[in-house]
């Protein structure tokens, strides 16, 4: 399982493209929104939590179809399926690798973008905590969506359609936690609910994703 | 004799051919009775005026939009556990019907909301979760359409339906948490405190029964079409092999 993880990480870093793409997209969102809605600091501060979360979500979505598609095309997914580790483990490692190359960097650069978006200072810890806890759920749900659509030609758009409704609870709780934190309100409840979704997704979705992969390889 | 006999396509076709006219007829009778009664023979509400009458479309459609997904969940589970093709095809057949009911509920809700709340759309928990339910239906239908092999498609959509059910439920409570809105609470709960008055209640129940029967009739008819399409595909494939 460690081998699968390191292989995916190495591929992601060396092959380029996918690794920086999500980050660049996240940055673009944070640049375009002030251009679109106007630069008033008060407005930006009010919409910052939502925009940052939506940006992170879309950046995550952008890189999802790479999780299985390349392995499916060159046949290494079949090899992974016959490898002596369970498919569930492979899927979980794939999701972890996706998180390490998209979710974690997004979380780490988010304070800089929050600065651009004029997020109130007390919102920063909540932004970091919610992204750190929430982006693994995005990766895991996305891995499930990618597993469903791996056999479909040009499945990217279909993948977005399937995955976006599944992202709704995570987005709501994540953005709500940041919003409450930025206003100096109690924000632990949405954060905990979102953490519950993350752990639930991590515990259950590998089985669903592995089942979908097996169906697609049959 | 068990219910699983009806999983045999031949048996299903026979039974549904017999049942379909009866169910359709009963649905038509209930809908015509309920709607005419509701529209023409009930008084206007003292606050809402005649716009209250849209309830006879709105509430049953909304109920069936959710129940259609539940039915798809059950049939998907049956397909995944027992591999009965009719079950998977019934789930496939129900999805567009459920989507249509969702759209009816959303559109009639907008038409009702405009005079009552002064807005076509509000980001209210119920409205939002219905919009998300519509998206779930779209994704489900798109996945069916995208996968070529019917058995693979049935498996994948089955998994999607199960996972989607969990997330649809989560979304429901998430949007509740996110915003407290305009929409009134349940009007048909068993405790009579919040119920609609009896004059509206009886035709509404008739309409709900009519919508349930309409749903069953549509799903039966569409499932028959799916089975025939599957048989046709098998015949074409055999032709090509020969």
Describe this structure in words.
Chain A: It is a multi-pass membrane protein. Chain A: It holds the Pfam family CcmB. The complex is a heterodimer of chains A (218) and B (242). Chain A is mostly helical and 218 residues long. In chain A, 84% of the residues lie in helices and 0% in strands. Chain A has 9 helices and no strands. Chain A has helices spanning 2-15, 18-37, 41-62, 66-74, 76-82, 87-116, 124-148, 156-182, 188-217. In chain A, helix 2 packs parallel to helix 6 (87-116) and helix 3 (41-62) packs parallel to helix 7. Chain A is elongated. Chain B is built from 6 helices and no strands. With 242 residues, chain B is mostly helical. In chain B, helix 2 (55-82) runs parallel beside helix 6 (198-241), helix 3 (85-117) runs antiparallel to helix 4 (125-146) and helix 4 (125-146) packs antiparallel against helix 5. The longest helix of chain B is centred in the last third of the chain and has 44 residues, at 198-241. Chain B has one domain: Four Helix Bundle (Hemerythrin (Met), subunit A) (Up-down Bundle). The two termini of chain B are 38 Å apart. Chain B has helices at residues 9-40, 55-82, 85-117, 125-146, 150-178, 198-241. The chains are: A mainly alpha (218), B mainly alpha (242).
Summarize the structure.
The complex is a heterodimer of chains A (218) and B (242). With 218 residues, chain A is mostly helical.
